[in-house]
C-alpha cells in the first residue's frame, strides 16, 4: 500500500494593523495632521483605534464624520494626501510588533508554514512599515488594499496572498482583529483567528471568528484546535 502524501504546508495570512503591529500611535498622529489641516481638533486615541481597519482614506473619512464634517471630494482628497504624507514620514516612529509576534513567526517558519500579509493598508506602506520593523523578509507575499484593485472584505486579496506564496486555501488560515478580517476569511472559505487586542469597537468574541486569542503565545494551540497545526 503506498504511503499517504504529507499534508500541504500551512499558509498563515496575517492582517497588519492591530493584528501583527501596534501601529495605532502613528496612525493617530497622521489623522491628527489631516484634521488640523481642516482646523479640526485631534480625536482621542481610543476613538481613532475603533475607526481603523478599512484603510487610510476610510480612516480620514471616519475622523471627519466624527466631527460632523462632510467635505467636497476635492478637499477630501487633499486631506487624504496630508494624511499619507505625514504617515510616510513617520510610519514607524512608535509602531512595533505586538508582544510574542516575532517568536510566533519564528515557530511558524521553523515548522515550514508559508507566511503572508493581507492588509487594507496601501501596499507600499505595508512593505515600508514591515521593513522599518525588520520583518518584511519573513513574508512571501505582502498584499495591500490596492494590490488587486479591491480591498477586504472582498476575498480576492486574501486568495491572492495565498496564491502568491504557493499555498493551498484548504490549508490556510487568516489571522486578524476585525469584522473585516472575519468577513474576508468567510468569503474565501477559510478559518479565522481573531486577536482580542486589536482595533475594533465590536467585542472580539462577537466578531464571528473561529477562535479568539489574547496573545501570540496562544497561536499554536489555536491552529491545533482548527486542525491546522503546521
TrEMBL record:
GO BP terms: carbohydrate metabolic process; DNA repair; glycolate biosynthetic process
Presence of keyword Transcription regulation: no
Q: Name one Pfam family in it.
A: Hydrolase
UniProt KW Chloroplast keyword: no
Q: What residues form the catalytic site here?
A: 15 (nucleophile)
EC category name: hydrolase
Q: Which UniProt keywords apply?
A: Carbohydrate metabolism, Hydrolase, Magnesium, Metal-binding
Pathway annotation: Organic acid metabolism; glycolate biosynthesis; glycolate from 2-phosphoglycolate: step 1/1
Q: Which stretches are annotated as coiled coil?
A: none
User: What residue intervals traverse the membrane?
Assistant: none
A single GO CC term, please? cytosol
Q: Write down the chemical reaction(s) this protein catalyses.
A: 2-phosphoglycolate + H2O = glycolate + phosphate
Cofactor(s) for this UniProt protein? Mg(2+)
EC id: 3.1.3.18
Amino-acid positions noted as binding Mg(2+) in the UniProt annotation, renumbered to this chain: 15, 17, 177
Q: Output the Gene Ontology terms for molecular function.
A: metal ion binding; phosphoglycolate phosphatase activity
The protein's role, per its UniProt record: Specifically catalyzes the dephosphorylation of 2-phosphoglycolate. Is involved in the dissimilation of the intracellular 2-phosphoglycolate formed during the DNA repair of 3'-phosphoglycolate ends, a major class of DNA lesions induced by oxidative stress.
The record, for PANTHER family, names:
PHOSPHOGLYCOLATE PHOSPHATASE
Tell me which NCBIfam families the record gives.
HAD-SF-IA-v1, HAD-SF-IA-v3, PGP_bact
Family designation: Belongs to the HAD-like hydrolase superfamily. CbbY/CbbZ/Gph/YieH family.
- Please identify the protein, giving its name as recorded: Phosphoglycolate phosphatase
